[in-house]
Amino acid sequence: MRWWSLANFVSNAGTWMQLTVQNLLVLQITGSAAATGLSVSVQAAPALLVSLVGGAAVDRWPRKLTALVSQALLGVVALVTALLVATDRLDLTVLLVLAAVTGTIATVDGPACALLGNDLVPAEDVPSAIGVGSLVHSAGRLAGTALAGIAVGFLGTAAAYAANGLSFLFVASVIPFLRPAAAAVKYVVPALRGTEAAARQQAQDMSVRQGLAYFARRPRLVALAGITGLSAIFGRNYGLTLAVLVTGPLAAGAGAFGTVSTVLAVGGIVGAVLGARLRKPSVRLVGALAAVGALLQAVAGLSPSIAVLLVLVLPMAVVESVSDTAGTTVLQTDPPAHMRGRVLGVWGSISTGWGLAGPPLLGLLMEVAGARGALVIGGLVVAGALGSGYLLRNRRTPGPVPLRTGERDATAAQPALGTAA
User: Fold this and answer.
1) 135, 140, 141: which is closest to 270 by C-alpha?
2) In which band, very low, low, confident or very high, does the pLDDT at 24 lie, cut at 50, 70 and 90?
């Protein structure tokens, strides 16, 4: 697990190096902000369309082999991009194709690597392993963003892509040496049996259809998707809302927003550490934390100064990071082992849809209500919707009905009932 965490830190740092410079590269090639947004959408689009198939592949193929191959392929794509940038042969069309290929491979790589990390610890420690993964992701993001400026300044844009490619290959080189924990959740890749037609039908049943049906039948997962959707549309997009708040109503500059972003990142790391201590998180806990974070967001929208905003941003980031870690734990532990890849595939499509729809809708709300209004209204909508859902759920849950035998209730008649049973 220590080796896997180190490998993922290196990989996350490389990925954020590439993501940081990719927008600059598109602007350098085209000079168009619209083209920059298009490149981001093209890379995200496969997760919306292909994640279901990617999740089914993770359930169908050996997990270590799947993660190794996907990491190696991602490394090759990054190195090819670096070579094209270094030789000045990269145009917008090629860049978009490579971004789409990267997004497609990631639909398999994401769930494969997430579930592989869970295999390295005993079943009772999976929530802690997920928390460690969240911590590694946050630390890698900070390191990668900082290293991107150094790499571009001294070595050029191609260096960021080359570093990312090497980071993927480092992960691929570590995977063969990983060994599952003795008390880890056991998962055996099912073998296809029977005639060729029966095997084909069995493979189809193991794929997208079964994953969708399982997800739709699990109220916990559907509720988790609803909580995520509310947060994606009315909150969480702090790179947009807080940037406008800081540079607009609070009349501060880009440096102040950089400070706010750093505090958000620190809060995310603290939240990941706290989330790693959760043993059996529930969807109710996820919703409660999301509601608290939304209320803090609403209060942050009323901040009279940068100092007050910083005081509110830290606990807001901590609460939402713990909520994210708890939600990820539920998502990866609620389904049976043989269904987890497909559930993560369904989740990839849902969360990508929310992620693509959220910023435009939030931007429209900001146009109407301003940055402060968007933060306050969004926070109150999320908290109000989650609170209403909680009250309705409790109202619909039937209470215990006392059974009476003559003049006594069932509790008094327990010995007789036990004998009858």
Assistant:
1) 135
2) confident
What is the per-residue pLDDT across 41-50, written as a single tens digit (0 to 9) for each?
788 888 888 8
Q: How do residues 369-389 score in pLDDT, each as one tens digit?
A: 888 999 999 999 999 999 998
Report which of residues 194 and 420 the model is more confident about. Answer: 194
Q: How many CB atoms lie within 10 A of CB 418?
A: 8
pTM of full prediction above 0.85? no
**Residue written as token pair 């830290």:** 314
The closest alpha carbon to 147, from 6, 20, 4, belongs to 20
Closest CA to 117 of 179, 71, 199: 179
Cβ-proximal residues to 321 (8 Å cutoff; 6+ apart), any chain: 134, 138, 267, 268, 269, 270, 271, 272, 274, 275
In angstroms, the CA 252 to CA 242 distance is 11
Q: What is the pLDDT of residue 19?
A: 81
- Is residue 282 over pLDDT 80? yes
* DSSP structural state of residue 125: G
Conformation bin of residue 176: beta by default, left when phi > 0, alpha when psi is -120 to 50:
alpha
- Alpha-carbon distance values, 99 to 78, 103, 140 (Å): 10, 6, 21
Measured distance CA(351)–CA(354) in Å, rounded: 5
Residue whose token pair is 């972003």: 261
φ/ψ of 187, rounded to 5, equals -140, 125
Compute the distance between CA of residue 364 and CA of residue 372 in angstroms, rounded to an integer.
13
Amino acid at 170: F
Element (H, E) at 409: strand 408-409
What tens digit of pLDDT does each residue of 305-314 get? Answer: 999 999 999 9
Of residues 152 and 82, more confidence is placed in: 82
Q: Measure the CA–CA gap between 84 and 78, rounded to whole angstroms.
A: 10
* Neighbouring residues of 261: CB distance < 8 A, sequence distance ≥ 6: 239
Contact residues for 7 (Cβ-Cβ < 8 A; gap 6+):
170, 171, 174, 175
Measured distance CA(188)–CA(194) in Å, rounded: 19
